[in-house]
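User: Let's play a game. I give you a shape written as tokens, and you guess the letters that built it. Ready? Here's round one.
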């Protein structure tokens, strides 16, 4: 699907959109959070419980990053547990964050396939002031992703999801925060 029907009835091809155009079509994280339907209580609960440590790197260490563009869906358990962390970090550093829904923006999603084949979310794309990509992170913390693709595949879907939720509850966002900070400070990206 590379076309979008506009209000006027014309069809717009978004295949070659720039990241700035995608950014312009995205909604703010706060607007996204206000309208989530699936997992609403969980989204708001996680968002309210995020606590940033006192020893965060200086803002000058992340100065190149001006924007976070996230690809998400409200039903996604990984997004529920990681995007609120990204949003708090973004706010702390003066980085504007916007969100696009994956299922209505497949042209962008298909640029960020996990392992070249999976539309796994969330994806957080870091952009500079000229909307040039600095890198991207996602769909989940590296340690958890390794487990899901390894041992986790031995479990049925329900049990795997239960274990993923337990991991996020024990971790309380620390690993997501650490990976995003390393990414922001130029020490790695997924």
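Assistant: Ready! My guess for every position:
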């Amino acid at each position: 699907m590379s076309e979008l029907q506009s209000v006027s009835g014309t069809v717009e091809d978004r295949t070659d959109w720039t990241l700035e155009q995608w950014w312009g079509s995205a909604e703010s994280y706060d607007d996204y959070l206000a309208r989530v339907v699936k997992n609403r209580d969980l989204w708001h609960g996680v968002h309210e419980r995020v606590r940033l440590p006192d020893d965060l790197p200086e803002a000058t260490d992340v100065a190149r990053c001006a924007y976070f563009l996230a690809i998400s869906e409200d039903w996604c358990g990984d997004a529920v547990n990681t995007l609120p962390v990204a949003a708090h970090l973004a706010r702390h550093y003066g980085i504007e964050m916007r969100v696009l829904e994956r299922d209505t923006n497949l042209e962008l999603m298909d640029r960020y396939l996990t392992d070249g084949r999976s539309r796994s979310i969330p994806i957080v794309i870091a952009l500079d002031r000229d909307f040039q990509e600095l890198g991207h992170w996602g769909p989940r913390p590296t340690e958890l992703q390794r487990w899901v693709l390894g041992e986790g595949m031995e479990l049925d879907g329900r049990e795997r999801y239960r274990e993923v939720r337990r991991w996020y509850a024990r971790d309380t966002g620390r690993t997501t925060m650490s990976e995003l900070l390393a990414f922001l400070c130029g020490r790695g990206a997924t």
